[in-house]
Amino acid sequence: MSGNPILDTTALAVSLFNTMLLLWLGIVVVSNADRRSWGIWLASGGLLCGGIFFLVHTAILARGLREATIDLDWLWHFGWLPIIVAPLAWYVVMLWYAGYLGERVSRNQRLHRVGLLLVSFGALFLAFLILFVGSLPAFNQVVTLGRTEYIATPGTPLLVVVYAFYNITCLGLAIYALRYPGPSARWMGELARKRARPWFVAATVVLLSVSLLVSAFVVILYFASSSLPGRVEQIRELLTLFDLIIGALIAIAVMLIGKATVSYEIFTGKTLPRRGFFRQWRRAVILAAGYSVVVAAAITFSLSLIYALLLATVLLVIFYALLSVRMFGERERVVRELRPFLSALPDASANGSPRAAFDASQTFGWLCENVLNVRVAYLVPGVPFATMLTHPTQIAPKLDLAALLAQLSKSNEMFVPISPTRFANAVWAIPLQSERGLMGALLLSERNDDSLYTQEEIESAQAAGERILQAQVNAEWTRRLIELQRGRLAATQVVDRRARRILHDDILPQLHTAMLSLSAGETQNAQAQMTEMHRALSDLLREMPAGASPQVERYGLISALRRAVDEEFVNAFDRVTWDIEPDVEARAQTLAALNAEVVYAAAREAIRNAAKHGRGGEQTRALHLCIAAYWREGLTLEIQDDGVGIANVRGEGQGLQLHSTMMAVIGGAWRMERAQDKTRVELYLPVGVG
Asked: Rounded distance, CA 306 to CA 308, Å?
């Protein structure tokens, strides 16, 4: 090489650095792609061609420019083929990336078709000049440059002119394609293009500068060849310095391409960038930089092979040790970040009572601030017993949740774009799933630093949102069941004490009076006493809590409900309408016994509320009841009345809370709504629960 150890080491290190990064990018792009289309293979092949060229270039630099052997001459000629292919491959990849090679028709498509044919012909013509015409000088002429008089090779000027025009055309058209891209068929492709375009434009400009510099330098050498003999050392140092400048510019272009690839998943087809991918790229850059410097220094200073090998081994061990430490540090960081979230979730204390310290808003706020760094976020529940959470904490805005949840239930995407004007500055909706289906959505705005969300962050947010909603539901279930248990226990004690009082203070004296009347021959008085005792006992039995009903097991769910209406509520309604689909009763027989009992009790409670509160104190008011049952991926029962509605009655009994909770426990749903002067209760039990 030049004989300057610092210059030679730097040039060799830069060449080896480019080799390692280009090969790494080429292999990683194709191996991490979701769908390996021809564009992915072409992008990977172009990067690998660049890596192969610098592999050849590194071998030539390491051997030096002092001798011409057959293998170096072979490498010299065939090493130019990747140089010819690289601009064409870059242009084609940019066309594919910009959407000009897909099925969608876009403007400027005809221009790029003509340009693609032109540069393809140019590439073939350059390969013909090198392989068959011999326009490329032999490697022996390069080695002896400055020592002997240069003998011009026929066709070299044509090769230089065509190569310069070919490079400028390829890279200029690539910049034009980046400046005016076509439509994107990829999910979130427009956003990824917008973020990655500056990096690709900068890389293309750098490559264009390299092409212009190489063409100008070759032209200068060609026309100054007559004055070069006798200036060997100056020529070699000049060649090495120029090689270093070109290698450094290409290294900058490689870094720009790598940044766009790992930060925006341009060539892998991923919807979101991955934080781990960027970390691996950063480690590859560090390893390539350190390893190339060590190996280049060992070659330049002619270290013994064993010493060079040991030095490289020590470097790799140090890098692997630092990588292991960093991986353990990342694991500890993840655990440290998850600890506040996990510690905030509800659990059970030693005595089995639920811990009341669960604060869903605090947990959600921690997620939004420390993980997502988001400006505005909304956790929207689609299941009962969960409340909407906002960040920052504010009054929950009115959102079109029904349409949003319907849209998310039909989408298979990780998240979907939404209108910020309709959803209070939120621009992304992440569906939250459970084993029973869609349970809600997480709405996110842009981040505070305007960066993209990574795939790991979205997956963490999705899992955390699902866990928060489930924790809310579980906490509410536990609270309601405990309150109901306490209420039922208190009611049982009250009824028990009242029964004892009635039996002791009312029934027994009346029974004693009746016996005395019979013994005295006062039959009518005894009969009146017995009638009064019967009425008191009936009222007492009616007011006691009802136990499990054997009606469902004996007659089936629908028939048991009919008997309850005909026997218990025979005078409660003016008219009862039944609308039962033919196959519902048979399908209801397949329900688990516990599920059927819960649905029966909930339906009975809804009918009892209609009978008790429907007339609103107006005994002359007409009251009609309609009961419908149909099967739509599960059993649906609808109980509808035209009364005043329970919302217009003071308070809300514990029955509604109990049965809505029990329906949720078995995997069903209880919905009650008031519309068009009618109260409608819907009980739904999907297929497969229980």
From this structure: 5
